[in-house]
Design a protein that fits this description.
Blueprint: H1 10-25, E1 30-34, E2 49-53, H2 60-66, H3 69-76, E3 95-99, E4 105-108, E5 112-113, E6 121-122, E7 130-134, E8 141-145, E9 151-157, E10 167-171, E11 176-180
Antiparallel strand pairs: 1-2, 3-4, 3-11, 5-6, 6-10, 7-8, 8-9, 9-10
Length: 182
């Protein structure tokens, strides 16, 4: 693969490989587009790739059949895991984090940082992969998977973290799966 597409980074190749796997092994379809020239090709976009996911729609029974009870509680019923208990809170390997419900790529590991909040924190998701919705009380902004609508957590702005976006995507570990770069 690397010889036929030499301009792709290792992260882009990982996402291309993930896309091929999804096309071959799932009825849902995911398209990863490499942006020529990296982050400079799109204003405000660092990372050189876009995630565009087809909608994944399942009944409650179908979700219960493919998710663990705890994944169902968090992804489908908007629950929250206890702080400091998730497997990805202090996990810093190179790769891509995907939605635990539908396997849509959501975050590159290079966007992850230690916020000390007790949940995995990212300063940005892959463009097109995450939706934002204000909570009914107006206090927080919920983030969900754009493909399946699964609850990921919340996004906070202006907290003063030294990140390129000054945002913190506070994500439940159980909402994620990790695919290593190698």
């Amino acid at each position: 693969m690397t010889s036929s597409i030499p301009h792709l980074s290792r992260s882009n190749l990982l996402l291309l490989s993930t896309t091929t796997h999804l096309k071959e092994n799932r009825s849902s379809f995911l398209k990863i587009v490499s942006v020529a020239g990296g982050g400079g090709a799109r204003r405000g976009f660092r990372g050189g790739m876009l995630a565009m996911a087809a909608q994944v729609q399942k009944s409650e029974e179908e979700w219960r059949a493919v998710l663990s009870p705890e994944q169902f509680r968090i992804l489908r019923q908007k629950g929250t895991e206890y702080p400091g208990t998730g497997v990805y809170d202090k996990f810093y390997e190179e790769g891509v984090y995907t939605c635990a419900g539908c396997e849509t790529p959501l975050y590159k590991s290079t966007a992850k940082f230690n916020s000390g909040c007790g949940w995995p924190a990212f300063f940005e998701g892959l463009p097109g992969a995450i939706n934002r919705n204000a909570d009914p009380d107006g206090m927080r902004v919920e983030i969900t998977c754009a493909a399946c609508g699964g609850h990921l957590g919340h996004v906070f702005k202006g907290e003063g973290f030294r990140t390129p976006t000054d945002e913190r995507h506070c994500v439940n570990s159980i909402s994620l799966k990790f695919t290593p770069a190698n």
